[in-house]
Design goal:
The chain has 267 residues and is mostly beta strands. The chain is built from no helices and 20 strands. The chain is globular, with a radius of gyration of 18 Å. InterPro entries: 6-blade_b-propeller_TolB-like.
């Protein structure tokens, strides 16, 4: 864990017994205290999800396994999102011939699945009311999944907001705090579009990245909806969407050289 202002190291989340790595995906709830991360429980074992909660002084709890996912074979590239009340987890997983999105109750492990023959899901975000999930589907576009609809066909339960034919290099998506709009990345541009899709998207800012950076931008939006976080190599970049200004900070840790692939980050 790092300070979002200066990148200073704050605390290490202890790995559960048998987990050899925490370098997979993670997500944060809007309360800025509840996180879910993934790790292996042992050699040649599937990934598991673990919930971590921060105390009032900011110290992390021991990771608690999310029940009900022991038999779900998870890979390293999955997208996850925590519900606003931090009680449910949504995640995307590849399946033979398509992709699946699941919503699981963090206490009981009860799960519901939707699937489609699409290639990949690169972004997930909960609506503030917890009744819908925005998603980015490769080759299809940006849409909103209605959790109240019956059935398991993902695209049948999802309303298209913006087709991918109008956009390039889609990656992340997030809801504005009032639920009226979606914030998403198209290439290195950060865009905003009304959730009903009736207006054209507008550019909030364009981030500058080195030539060796990915063509897509993965970001995490804070609970206020004003600040966006992305990581390149071992530096964090905090973008103020109100004025487009960017603050850069090194992610300082004694356990890593600061070189190599970019870590995953969420707030």
């Amino acid at each position: 864990m790092h300070d979002a202002i200066n990148g200073e190291f704050l605390a290490a989340i202890p790995l559960p017994p048998g987990v050899r790595s925490s370098s997979q995906v993670l997500a944060a709830a809007p309360d800025n205290r509840t996180f879910v991360l993934s790790g292996w429980t042992g050699p040649n074992s599937p990934l598991r999800f673990f919930r971590v909660h921060l105390a009032e002084d900011g110290s992390p709890s021991d990771p608690i396994p999310v029940p009900g996912l022991e038999s779900d074979a998870l890979g390293a590239g999955h997208i996850i999102a925590l519900s606003p009340d931090a009680t449910r987890l949504a995640y995307a997983a590849s399946i033979p011939g398509g992709v699946k999105i699941s919503v699981v109750d963090l206490s009981t492990g009860q799960r519901r699945d939707w699937s489609t023959r699409a290639s990949v899901v690169t972004g997930l975000a909960w609506a503030p009311d917890g009744q819908r999930i925005a998603l980015v589907v490769g080759g299809w576009g940006i849409g909103v999944l209605d959790l109240g609809l019956q059935g398991s066909d993902l695209l049948a339960a999802t309303r298209l907001v913006k087709p991918s034919s109008d956009l390039s290099f889609l990656e992340s998506v997030a809801y504005a705090p009032d639920g009226s709009a979606l914030i998403y990345s198209a290439g290195h541009a950060v865009m905003r579009i009304p959730v009903d899709g009736r207006e054209e998207p507008r550019v909030l800012t364009r981030v500058s990245l080195p030539a060796d950076a990915s063509l897509t931008l993965r970001f995490s939006l804070d609970g206020t909806g004003r600040y966006l976080l992305y990581v390149h190599r071992w530096r964090g970049f905090r973008v103020d969407l109100a004025d487009g200004s960017t603050t850069s900070m090194p992610l300082k840790t004694d356990e890593h050289s600061g070189e190599g692939d970019s870590p995953n980050a969420a707030w």
